[in-house]
């Protein structure tokens, strides 16, 4: 474990991994915490796999799983995996014997996003019917090209496969958009959140649906020009959080379609499962690629963007609309717009003592940590 003092913040930063192929902490939005307080990460390279990192000691151990990770259970005592033969496994943590749950069906040759509900019963699969060879995802500052990409031909479906009953059902078909960010509830195994892959200010961004296809519901209904993005489940599963910008009447909305270059402030919102907004913060100090929350709901972390290249922390209370993000450590990954937030994926340790994130060290993403102290 290597340590240094961040010259811009004065904080001590720990580099927890140092592998030639790199390593990354589990993605933002996804559960990361293991039963022993370690965090889930991924070691890169052909011999890589899932690893557990102790942010306190810097110790790293490999997790022997029966396939690629689908999901870490929200109660942290199990993982769900999918192997090369499409077999679905539940592996108790830390070292339990894997249990075969069933076999995933072949749905489509198109891109499939696969997740599993919290009870391990239902696979939820997002089918994206588009041609990214003809319409590659832009990652530069060409606004017309970005808007053309949002207008590309596409469609999509969401499928649910009941592993116990061996039953496959298409629960939603979408025209002119694809489903993205398919994310089952951490509390209700019959409820799934997803989003539309459209320009965030020109569509209804966040939706929920039941695994039987019922109760399709818009979350935080939007007017055209309301920019809602980077949604995530609140830890208790009672709310869905997101970033918000009011760009109604903004004449630069297509010349500056990126949220980080918008002339309007950014706020943090929460909606309940009826879809109603129940919290909206005051404007925060600047735009963050992603924000995320601690397990107890008392802290938020942020990932700065162009001109704000830091990871941040702030206290949070539903009783206060004020959120003040404090920079903790410099992010060295070169910034590009519309590039998944530079893969920073910041999140808190189980005890809230550490903010753990990905950063570019010697040309490769590695896992770093800084004390989550205000």
């Amino acid at each position: 474990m290597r340590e240094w003092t961040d010259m811009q913040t004065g904080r001590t930063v720990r580099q927890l991994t140092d592998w030639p192929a790199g390593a990354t902490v589990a993605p933002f939005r996804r559960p990361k915490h293991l039963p022993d307080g370690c965090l889930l990460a991924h070691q890169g390279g052909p011999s890589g796999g899932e690893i557990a990192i102790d942010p306190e000691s810097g110790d790293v151990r490999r997790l022997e799983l029966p396939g690629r990770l689908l999901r870490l259970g929200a109660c942290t005592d199990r993982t769900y995996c999918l192997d090369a033969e499409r077999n679905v496994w539940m592996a108790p943590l830390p070292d339990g014997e894997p249990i075969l749950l069933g076999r995933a069906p072949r749905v489509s040759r198109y891109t499939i996003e696969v997740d599993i509900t919290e009870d391990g019963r239902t696979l939820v699969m997002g089918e994206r019917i588009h041609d990214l060879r003809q319409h590659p995802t832009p990652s530069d500052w060409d606004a017309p090209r970005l808007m053309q990409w949002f207008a590309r031909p596409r469609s999509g479906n969401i499928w649910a496969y009941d592993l116990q009953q061996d039953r496959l059902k298409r629960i939603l078909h979408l025209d002119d958009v694809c489903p993205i960010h398919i994310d089952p509830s951490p509390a209700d195994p019959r409820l799934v959140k997803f989003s539309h892959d459209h320009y965030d200010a020109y569509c209804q961004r966040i939706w929920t649906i039941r695994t039987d296809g019922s109760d399709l519901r818009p979350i935080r209904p939007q007017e055209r020009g309301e920019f809602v993005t980077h949604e995530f489940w609140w830890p208790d599963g009672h709310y869905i959080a997101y970033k918000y910008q009011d760009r109604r009447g903004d004449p630069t909305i297509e010349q500056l379609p990126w949220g980080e270059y918008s002339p309007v402030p950014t706020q943090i919102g929460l909606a309940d499962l009826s879809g109603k907004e129940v919290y909206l913060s005051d404007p925060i100090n600047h735009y963050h690629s992603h924000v995320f929350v601690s397990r107890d709901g008392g802290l938020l972390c942020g990932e700065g963007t162009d001109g704000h290249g830091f990871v941040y922390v702030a206290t949070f209370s539903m009783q206060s609309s004020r959120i003040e993000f404090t920079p903790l450590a410099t992010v060295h990954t070169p910034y590009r717009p519309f590039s998944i937030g530079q893969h920073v994926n910041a999140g808190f340790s189980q005890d809230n003592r550490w903010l753990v994130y990905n950063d570019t060290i010697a040309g490769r993403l590695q896992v770093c940590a800084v004390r989550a102290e205000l």
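The chain is about 0% helix and 45% strand. The two ends are 24 Å apart (CA to CA).
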